[in-house]
Amino acid sequence: xxxxxxxxxxxxxxxxxxxxxxxxxxxxxxxxxxxxxxxxxxxxxxxxxxxxxxxxxxxxxxxxxxxxxxxxxxxxxxxxxxxxxxxxxxxxxxxxxxxxxxxxxxxxxxxxxxxxxxxxx
Length: 121
Fold this sequence. Notes:
- Residues 47-91 form the Helix-turn-helix domain.
- By secondary structure, this protein is mainly α.
- It folds into two domains: 4-37, no CATH class; 41-100, Multidrug-efflux Transporter Regulator, Chain: A, Domain 2, CATH 1.10.1660.10.
- The chain has helices spanning 4-10, 23-33, 50-57, 61-69, 94-101, and strands at residues 47-48, 86-87.
- The chain has a two-stranded antiparallel ribbon.
- Helix 3 (50-57) crosses helix 4 (61-69).
- The longest helix has 11 residues, at 23-33.
- The relative contact order is 0.13.
């Protein structure tokens, strides 16, 4: 119920006067009705944005997105395309810390029998 303005904007529905929804109109409705834009906007430390979670773990947003996509790090979205809401307590899990610390570098085969792509000609 509290995410109704977000759902309206996401589905491109018109306002009661037939106008398009803008960020200002959505903010105005939330302010008048006392609805938070998203949980991490409260800044109480319980919910974090993706950028705040990345800073807390010392990694990039891409790493956080990969952890969310693979299901290692639980995250909520109000609607598809909305910012992720990440609980700060979930960042302390051992699986999240070990996955974030792992570097996603490609494997290199240092075998002497491997032929180079470019030869010196």
